[in-house]
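Q: My hope is that you can spare some time for a protein that puzzles me. Underneath my words sits a plain record pairing an amino acid chain with its backbone structure tokens. Those tokens are not coordinates but codes from a learned vocabulary of shapes. Thank you; the sequence and its tokens follow:
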Amino acid sequence: MENNIPFFTDDTIVFGLLMLALGFVFYTESRPSGFWHKFYKIIPGLFMAYMVPALLTTVGLIAPEWTSTNDAGELTEHSSNLYFVSSRFLLPAALVLMTLSIDLKAVFNLGWKALIMFFTGTIGIVIGGPIALFIISLFKPDLIATTGPDAVWRGLSTLAGSWIGGGANQTAMLEIYAYNQAEYAKMVFVDIFVANVWMAILLIGIGKRNRINKWLKADTSSIEALKEKVSTFANKVKRNPSLTDIMIILAIAFGTVSIAHLCSNFMAPYFEDIVAGIDNATTKNIFTFLGSKFFWMISISTIIAILLSFTKARNYEGAGASKFGSVFIYVLVATIGMKMDLTSIFDEPVLILIGLIWMGIHAGLLIFIAKIIKAPYFFLAVGSQANVGGAASAPIVASAFHPSLATVGVLLAVFGYAIGTVAAIACTILMELISVS
């Protein structure tokens, strides 16, 4: 393997570049007139916060991971820790600060359409894989000819686990179907590339949500009512934040994160042992996500934040709590964008094409059902990301509509963790049937 070392490898420098990129996006987006004013009427700022780091990766200035060889020809793998830090520390902190002022009753008043769109997204993934595999096999029959651990359908099963649940479900599928782990990196690559492309499309759609909702003939009254409640409350308690306010806001956020990490360090191994003791292999793998520290960290952070929303802590929304949360979300978005190399589509074209068709079926079904039930674009976008992106990106998309809606993304993503392995198994059975028929 050849060296693929980026120009900047020091995370301190890379983080500074990402912050400069975000500063550039916010500065240009704030221009009241001229080119940038017209540009951001078409392209939302959140998309640019994602795309500028992707461009930095594409041109080789930065990279999420890379390899190098020493004089003896030995291969060494390196990676940036920025995404890990952002997803494990800043994401839960953002969820806490964005949930402080939530009106839980108003969230539940969003109604059944949110769940319908979530499960539609799940069904789209379940049927999308087999259909995509079948379509490509018509033009490339040797793709499904491989049997044993190298069989493509086994590898694609890990995508189904990831796109319905998350990393724990993806790992469960890898174990269940015993895919050749030497080839697993290809599937991880397709997962990252296709999921990020779809997220980028959703972010662009957010900027056009009014036109989309009009075409869908969607009733957005419940969403607007929730946003109005939160905004009214924020205006009611609004004040110029003092240093004390800012320190307490950070204490609430990262204090909660520390508790969540502490609890997850105990709960994940505890449930992992319980799941390991289950005799039935299928049942065991269904509940694999309970052994994920990330699952418990996100869930506990959200639960604590919801509890705090019933206390005086919610008044810190008036001092800008959700704005700090938004800062953390944007940093996370930048680190996600950093994982995207736009030239990588040429590395595994057939697998990428399967992934794109698969995601297209998922998207098409969501649009079809949204049109029928007149669901707002918010439900379509968040329902999709709760499946495809999980708890790491569903809150990002939700908060792009309004910070108070981030909790909705988390709650739906938890459903994804719960049903991820079962639904992925159903998808894999169908892909196996396509391959052996």
The longest helix spans residues 243-276. The radius of gyration is 22 Å.
